[in-house]
């Protein structure tokens, strides 16, 4: 699940066919430069260079090349349609056109992905010659494939132990120090993680990856990442309906994205220190599972009344955030498939961003827009903070009011972040409900490219795929 081979890209261009790209405003000039037979063919088939429009160019000996319309789409996603549109098993090289090679390569790779962990691929998609200078696109695509593989893996094959092992493998591959916390140590230092996972026969873990860039030292900025890794969520005693459980293997999507960002930071060798914490649990029902109205003591010392066992993600994260704050990070970022309320507000494509620092929030938002990985900021409205009051504990994990669920969840997490720490919280969906160009149905690395681009902007100078 960690070692992704991008078999969609090839280094050998022998026999590769030219793939031309064109936009509507350049179509007339493009047609004028073509041989008469190809121009006539494109005119006869009413080619208009719309986004995603493909025409194969005939030749007396067979196939001569292809023309791909881009319309006004500047995103990588438009190129994601190509692997399935081009003839099976064919090899292509990007020819002339109004496109960025790195963007096109990334989009092609994102569109090529299919989960193959259980069932082999049903067909051989076309491949693309990797031109010089696309190393960053290859790295980003491989990280996205890793995130998608983790989310798409069936829950019986990816439990808390397997997720922690994946984090360990990733960290060790990049020369990082890795710590796996379990058993009595988990109960002592991460009591809310232990409480969430207690109902499952599969033991919980906290995986911690600590890494330092080649040019970093003890005084270098510390980037701290936290991820919710609920490998399957039944809802606990507040049991989800059967339809609500169908996608719950993706409830570890926040952990997968955190690992994706960590992978990119390490591969790009940013001059920073990095700490990544993943809470790996399963939320199940049993005689020892946490109950509604239980009171849990957190790592911070605050007590939490469990108002709803299906609001377990914030319990997984709160101890991780407390631990992370103890190291005084330069930025603290958490990722979680946390609330349905965020999806009601923003839909499946827009992760909700909560951040008290206006400048950092703007950097994250603009970086996401620049790399076509959008996020949308929602307010941390302090007026709702007292909705978390509990008569028997310091706070409840839910509000009794049916409003602003995503904001209330973010305010809960804020209680565990020390003042002065620059914290951003991403509430994401982590899933594509249907296949679209560059975004096959299944797990998705939402916000990964946005956060990576923002971290580069703030802490490094490596160029990114951008508008």
Cα separation of the termini: 30 Å
Got a strand count? 19
Q: Look at the structure and give the mean pLDDT.
A: 95
Strand content: 15-25%
The poorly predicted ranges are 462-467
SSE class: alpha/beta
* Radius of gyration based on Cα positions: 24 Å
> Helical stretch count?
15
Rough outline: elongated
Q: What strand order characterises the main sheet?
A: 7-8-10-9-13-17-14-15
Helix content: 25-40%
For the largest beta-sheet, the strand count, sense and barrel status come to: 8 strands, mixed
Describe this structure as you would to a colleague.
Strands 7-8-10-9-13-17-14-15 form an eight-stranded mixed beta sheet, with helices on both faces. It is of the alpha/beta class and 467 residues long. The protein has helices spanning 27-32, 36-44, 82-85, 101-112, 135-152, 160-173, 183-189, 191-197, 242-245, 253-267, 313-325, 340-346, 358-370, 405-414, 448-459; strands spanning 9-10, 17-22, 54-59, 62-69, 91-94, 127-129, 177-181, 205-212, 222-233, 273-283, 295-297, 303-305, 331-336, 352-355, 376-377, 395-396, 423-427, 431-432, 442-443. The protein contains 15 helices and 19 strands. The two termini are 30 Å apart. Helix 4 (101-112) packs parallel to helix 5 (135-152), helix 5 packs antiparallel against helix 10 and helix 13 crosses helix 15 (448-459).
Main attributes of the structure:
six-stranded mixed β-sheet; 467 residues; alpha/beta; disordered C terminus; 20% strand
Quick overview:
With 467 residues, this protein is an alpha/beta fold.
């Amino acid at each position: 699940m960690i070692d992704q081979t991008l078999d969609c890209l090839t280094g050998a261009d022998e026999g590769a066919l030219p793939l031309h790209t064109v936009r509507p405003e350049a179509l007339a000039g493009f047609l004028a430069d073509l041989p008469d037979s190809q121009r006539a063919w494109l005119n006869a088939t009413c080619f208009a260079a719309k986004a995603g429009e493909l025409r194969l160019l005939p030749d007396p000996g067979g196939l001569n090349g292809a023309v791909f319309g881009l319309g006004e789409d500047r995103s990588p996603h438009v190129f994601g349609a190509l692997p399935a549109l081009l003839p099976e098993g064919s090899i292509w090289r990007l020819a002339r056109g109004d496109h960025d090679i790195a963007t096109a390569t990334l989009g092609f790779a994102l569109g090529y992905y299919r989960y193959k962990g259980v069932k082999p691929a049903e067909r051989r998609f076309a491949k693309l010659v990797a031109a010089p200078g696309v190393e960053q696109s290859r790295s980003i695509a491989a990280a996205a494939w890793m995130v998608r593989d983790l989310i798409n893996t069936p829950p019986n094959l990816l439990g808390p132990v397997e997720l922690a092992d994946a984090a360990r493998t990733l960290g060790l591959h990049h020369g990082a120090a890795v710590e796996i916390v379990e058993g009595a140590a988990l109960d002592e230092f991460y009591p809310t993680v232990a409480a969430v996972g207690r109902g499952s026969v599969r033991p919980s873990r906290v995986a911690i990856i600590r890494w330092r860039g080649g040019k970093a030292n003890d005084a270098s900025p510390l980037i701290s990442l936290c991820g919710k890794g609920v490998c399957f969520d039944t809802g606990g005693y507040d049991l989800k309906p059967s339809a609500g459980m169908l996608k719950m293997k993706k409830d570890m999507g926040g952990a997968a994205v955190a690992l994706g960002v960590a992978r990119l930071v390490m591969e790009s060798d940013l001059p920073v220190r990095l700490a990544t914490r993943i809470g790996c649990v399963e939320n199940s029902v049993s005689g020892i599972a946490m109950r509604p109205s239980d009171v849990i003591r957190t790592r911070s010392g605050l007590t939490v009344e469990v108002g709803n066992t299906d609001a377990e993600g914030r319990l997984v994260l709160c101890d991780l955030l407390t631990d992370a704050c103890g190291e005084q990070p330069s930025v603290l970022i958490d990722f979680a498939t946390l609330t349905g309320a965020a999806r009601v507000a923003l839909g499946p494509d827009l992760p909700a961003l909560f951040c008290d620092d206006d400048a950092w929030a703007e950097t994250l938002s603009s970086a996401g827009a620049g790399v076509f990985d959008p996020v949308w900021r929602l307010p941390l409205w302090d007026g709702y903070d007292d909705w978390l009051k509990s008569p028997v504990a310091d706070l409840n994990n839910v509000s009794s009011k049916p409003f602003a669920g995503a904001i209330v969840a973010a305010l809960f997490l804020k209680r565990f972040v020390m003042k002065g720490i620059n914290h951003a919280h991403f509430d994401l969906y982590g899933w594509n409900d249907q296949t679209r160009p560059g975004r096959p149905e299944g797990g998705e690395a939402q916000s990964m490219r946005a956060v990576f681009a923002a971290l580069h902007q703030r802490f490094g100078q490596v160029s990114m795929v951008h508008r």
